[in-house]
Amino acid sequence: MPASAGSIQSSTVVGAPRSRGFHIGLWAAQVVLALVFAMAGLSKLTQPIAALSKSIPYVTTMPDALVRFIGVSELAGALGLILPSVTRIKLVLTAWAAVGLIAVMVLAGVANVWHGEAQALPVNVVLGGLAAFVAKGRFGKARIPSRG
Question: How many helices (H) does the chain have, and how many strands (E)?
Answer without folding.
Answer: 5, 0
